[in-house]
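During the reporting period the student researcher (J.K.) took over the structure-prediction task from the postdoctoral fellow and processed the backlog of single-chain submissions. One of the processed entries is reproduced below for the supervisory committee.
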Amino acid sequence: MFHKKTIRDINVKDQTVLVRTDYNVPMEDGKITDDNRIVESFETLKYLLEKGAKKIIVVSHMGRPDGKRVPELSLKPVAEVMARGLGIKVDFVDDVSGPEVEMAIEDLKKGEILLLENLRFWPGEEENSEDFAHEIVDSAHADMIVEDGFAVVHRTHASVDAITHLIPAVAGLLVEKEAVGLSKVMSSAEHPMLVIIGGAKVEDKQPLIEAFLPTADKIAVGGKIAADGYETKDAKIYVAEDFDTDGEGAKLDIGPVATAEIAKIISEAKTVIWNGALGKVEDPAFDTSSTVVAKLLGENPEIYSVILGGDTTGFVRYLQSQFPELEYSLVSTGGGAALEFLLGKELPGIENLEDK
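J.K. obtained the following structure tokens:
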């Protein structure tokens, strides 16, 4: 199903491997508040360690520093989380190329990992500069690049695009898992298929609605889109008809009638794709409908469930921490990347990889 080479298709023994991850994680007061994206990269890193890679150098980004050093967006705290989670030594260098990086790589032993500084501190990253990519590759003396940051595979950036034209590029296990999981809902999903759309901006969601109309059996629309009066004459699309409000009358969650209707449609579905919270989930008073949907999906192993979008996946991950029995087929790490994948757009971080 995945037509690109992965780390399983190549010999990494005694190779110097660059790994592009997505460590764009939330931080508060210098502490990481959600380490899911870091943990998701461990399967690939453990595989490389087990297969005897000579040197493993991880490159990533955090936030939008616009090509400047922003201390609070340094990846240094990430190295500490990696070291604890992997149980190995993870060194950190506050640069991505040059003598300090070369020395750190020379000192790096098998069984250890080196994490470099936030790529977006340098304008060359978002400019897709080949010179910037060359500097990274030359300093690392890298034999290959493993693209494992699914959330950035749609970006035309140096570590996603330019670098793949300089050294062999293959997929990591996270990128493979995401691509396979999303491909399944596009090509071989079991029916009935339900697509649940929430969130705030109709201009972001309308392309997704239109993309799934030919294949979905039902589309349910909630969230602020429905609250703001989204209208359609298509019989396939159910739009929430009642809402829970705050003291000032603001519609902040879909109501019991709409929640019951979506629950009924879920009970008849075999595949469910959910993108966008149905209410203001950061306020416990208005997370009822989203909680109901999340539990219905997470408690039913007969449903192939795909969760997309930062707010939705964050909410689902939070619920899983409270209710560990909840399980989903795919909780995607990529918001925009997952949507573009489902819309059939070309993603450089996948298209540029070597074919099988």
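The committee noted the following: Residues 173-187 form the longest helix (15 residues).
J.K. will present the remaining backlog at the next meeting.
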